Amino acid sequence: MRTRKKKVVKSSLLRRFNIWGNVFVLPFCIVFLIFSVYPVLRTLFLSFTDLRVMGDYKMVGLENYIRVVTDKFFWRALRNTVRIWSVNIVLQLGMAFILMMIFSDVKYKVKGLRLFRVIYYLPNLIAATSVAFLFQTILDWRFGTFNIGINTIAKIFGLSYNPINWLGSTVWAPITIAIIQSWMWFGNSFLVLMAGVQGIPGEYFEVASLDGANRFQIFTNITLPLIRPILMYVAITSLIGGLQMFDIPFLLEPPTSSAYQTTETVMMYLYKFGFTAGSIQTGYASAIAYVLFLIILVVSIGQLMLFRRKED
């Protein structure tokens, strides 16, 4: 009888505990449903309508999606996004990899990792508007510090230098934006990769070093295989962030810029139909958002399968 009473008391206490747990979780669930789930479902619904700004609308089925697929300007914006992201990801991961190799090398034993972490991560903490204003000032083709510095160095060596319009040239503007993006985000990738390296037991590196393995062998046979899940995470999140690129190109390249056609990203194209006065087409903007989501989903799954195949 006593054991039964104890079980009844325990079960009642667990029920009370579960009820209070649900009460504490409930505010988050409500906020999440209102500000995350509802907008997603609402956007999906609007993508099947002809809604523009406000007022009446009617269902148009897949008309908006067909329009997106056949819209040459959408595909131009997607090409611009992929082009900028490709340069960005090479530089971003390249710098992060080099720093990771230096700081994780047993023979180098670089000190002050915490200080360098802060320094490298600082660009990621600066607001995009401040970054855009900074580089607009530095890269101004007439009075910018960068062109003036190059011109001064060229004069010292008796060379002539024609100032380059870094943000107005159809060739240089996408590359410039990619470099700025990589400068902002390489610190984040470096921190994530270093966290993965520090999770590897130090004995592996010490034993390999004592057995005569060189730096390249330690990196390729120990470090790289063990941080592959971290690499997969960085690759997928970089892809998602890259295809959603908006703030820096939007702030640096206004529609009046001569390089706008080569720097307009998919998110900028979506913004034009979603929020720009005079061209708002909410239904079409919603369809663009979901087409972009499907593209990101397919490519992310492809990356995931590729990494898993390499592991096998």
Note down, in words, how this protein is organized.
The chain is built from 14 helices and no strands. The chain is mainly α. Helix 3 packs across helix 13, helix 4 packs antiparallel against helix 7 and helix 10 (228-243) packs antiparallel against helix 14. The protein is globular. The relative contact order is 0.13. The mean pLDDT is 85.
Give the number of helices: 14
**Overall pLDDT level:** 85
Using only C-alpha atoms, the radius of gyration works out to 26 Å
What structural category arises from helix and sheet content? mainly alpha
Helix content: over 70%
Largest beta-sheet details = none
| Shape annotation | globular
Sequence-ordered SSE layout with sheet pairings:
Blueprint: H1 2-46, H2 63-69, H3 72-104, H4 113-125, H5 128-138, H6 145-156, H7 172-198, H8 202-210, H9 215-226, H10 228-243, H11 247-252, H12 260-263, H13 266-275, H14 282-311
Helix pairs in contact: 2-14, 3-7, 3-10, 3-13, 4-7, 10-14, 13-14
What features would you highlight for this structure?
312 residues, mainly alpha, 0% strand
Describe, in short, the structure shown.
The chain is an all-alpha fold.
